[in-house]
Amino acid sequence: MIHRESLHFLPQLIRLALPIALQSLMMTVLNLVDTVMVGQLGEVQIGAIALGNQIFFLLMLFLFGVGSGGAVFASQFWGRRDVHGVRKSLAMALIVGIAGAGVFTLVAELIPQTLISVFTTDAAVISEGTGYLRIVALSYLFTAVSISYAHGLRSIGDTRLPMYATAISIALNILGNYTLIFGKFGFPALGVQGAAISTAIARFIEVILILAVVYRRNGPIWPESIGRL
Asked: Per-residue pLDDT for 49 more than 80?
């Protein structure tokens, strides 16, 4: 049975959990839209992007583990209002995350064809996937920074800034996909490579938005950050 005292925490729980849930929902919508758009190009193209994103999926598992680990320590420090400790936890997560993303980026840039070949022997898919992976890998470092900051912000109760940044990034990604995949608004039709360029630009903008808002408040993590947005 739920104790009556625990009900007092429900509004705070909803305030923290709802933005995270919405952020996950938006990522699912983006994947759906990407699939629909690229699917119009053909089976080879959609297969190339799906296989290229397998590398990104592995990177996300790594970054999620690093970010979650840093957030555990940051939450403990934040419970004591030890802002210095929170910053140290964020710094360590950033260092490890960026280092790991750097390795993924380097490998994807140097041997993209070998990586795609692990998943398929179809020459056409390998060719398309290689071009896609080489471009989209440029976004890996941006992703590492944004995920580290998202976990750090959530550890102090600010779940809305990562959600807002992700929402803007996804909207730009969808617009960029439409523009660059199909050649709209005077841009050339780049197909799979257009999807990769759009993704890289969107993730760059996402991390810029997070950093701009965070450092506008004179520090990576600070007490006044809660409830500002």
From this structure: yes
What's the pTM?
0.86
Domain membership of residue 227 (yes or no) is: no
Whether residue 170 lies inside any domain: the answer is yes
110-138 pLDDT tens trace? 999 999 999 889 999 999 999 999 999 99
Q: Report the half-sphere exposure of 96 (CA within 13 A, side-chain side).
A: 16
- Rounded to an integer, what is the distance from CA 75 to the centroid of its chain? 21
Residue numbers of the domain that contains 214: 17-221
> How many angstroms separate the CA atoms of 193 and 198, rounded?
9
Residue 226 lies in a domain: no
Task: Return d(Cα 25, Cα 19) in angstroms, integer.
Answer: 10
Taking residues 164-183, report their average pLDDT.
Answer: 92
CA-based nearest residue to 133, from 101, 174, 105:
105
The one-letter code for the residue type at 192 is: V
Sequence-distant (≥ 6) Cβ neighbours of residue 209 within 8 angstroms: 164, 165, 168, 169
Q: Structurally, how many domains does the chain consist of? A: 1
User: What SS3 string covers 31-71?
Assistant: HHHHHHHHHCCCHHHHHHHHHHHHHHHHHHHHHHHHHHHHH
